Amino acid sequence: MRIGILTVSDRASRGVYEDKGGPAIRACLAEFLSCEWEPHALVIPDEQDQIEATLKAMCDDEGCCLVVTTGGTGPAKRDVTPEATEAVCEKMLPGFGELMRAVSLQSVPTAILSRQTAGIRGESLIVNLPGKPAAIRECLLAVMPAIPYCIDLIGGPVLTTNEEVVKAFRPKQ
Ligand SMILES: Nc1ncnc2c1ncn2[C@@H]1O[C@H](COP(=O)(O)OP(=O)(O)OP(=O)(O)O)[C@@H](O)[C@H]1O
Ligand SMILES: Nc1nc2c(c(=O)[nH]1)N[C@H]1C(S)=C(S)[C@@H](COP(=O)(O)O)O[C@H]1N2
C-alpha cells in the first residue's frame, strides 16, 4: 500500500528551510495506521502545473491510494493547492475541509484562511493540509476516522488504524 506525501512550498523546495511538513505527515500516518504502507514523498514549489502533474503521477503511476498534501491552501497569490486538487479530481469532498477548519479554529482564528479540501481521483483520495507543521496532526487526526471507509468506497485497499489513537468508522452494511 503506497501513500503519497506532497509538500508544496516555494521555500522548502528551494532549501531555504528544511521541510518539516512531509516528515510530520509521515510520522502521523505511522502513528495512526496499523497496516503496512510505504511513503512516496516529494517537495515541490507552489506551481499549479507542477502540483497537478505530481498529484496525477502519485495517483495514476505510483498507485497511491491516499495522497496527503501540505501547504499552498491560503489566500496568498501563489497558494494554488486547492485549485490543483480540484483540477485533477472527479469528485470533491468538501466535508474534509469543513471539519479541519472547524477543528483548527479551536487553536487559531486564522484557520478560516485555509481553503484546504479533499477529492477523489480514480481509486485515490487526495487530502489537503495547511503548510504550518503544527496544523498537520490536528487536521489529520480529525479526518482519519472517515478515510478508511472512503478508500473502501472508491475501490482502494483496506486501511486499518491503531484503535488506541484513532478508530476507523465503517458504517454497518
Ligand atoms: N514545509 C514546511 N516546512 C517547515 N515549515 C514550513 C513549511 N511550510 C510552511 N512552513 C512554515 O509555516 C509558515 C507559513 O507557511 P506558508 O505556507 O504560508 O508559507 P508561504 O509563505 O506560502 O511560503 P513557502 O511556500 O515558501 O513555504 C512559513 O513561513 C514557515 O515558517
Ligand atoms: N490547524 C491549523 N490550521 C491553520 C493554521 C495553523 O497554524 N494551524 N494556519 C492558518 C493560516 S495562518 C493560513 S494562511 C492557512 C493557509 O496556510 P497554507 O497556505 O500554508 O496552506 O492555514 C490556516 N490553518
TrEMBL record:
Reaction(s) catalysed (UniProt annotation): molybdopterin + ATP + H(+) = adenylyl-molybdopterin + diphosphate
Known EC number: 2.7.7.75
Record has Cytoplasm as a keyword: no
Keyword terms of this UniProt record: ATP-binding, Molybdenum cofactor biosynthesis, Nucleotide-binding, Nucleotidyltransferase, Transferase
Family of this protein: Belongs to the MoaB/Mog family.
Annotated function: Catalyzes the adenylation of molybdopterin as part of the biosynthesis of the molybdenum-cofactor.
GO BP field: Mo-molybdopterin cofactor biosynthetic process
SUPFAM superfamilies: Molybdenum cofactor biosynthesis proteins
Pfam families: MoCF_biosynth (PF00994)
The MoaB/Mog domain, residue ranges: 4-150
One GO molecular-function entry: ATP binding
Pathway in which the depicted protein is active: Cofactor biosynthesis; molybdopterin biosynthesis
Protein name: Molybdopterin adenylyltransferase
PROSITE patterns: MOCF_BIOSYNTHESIS_1
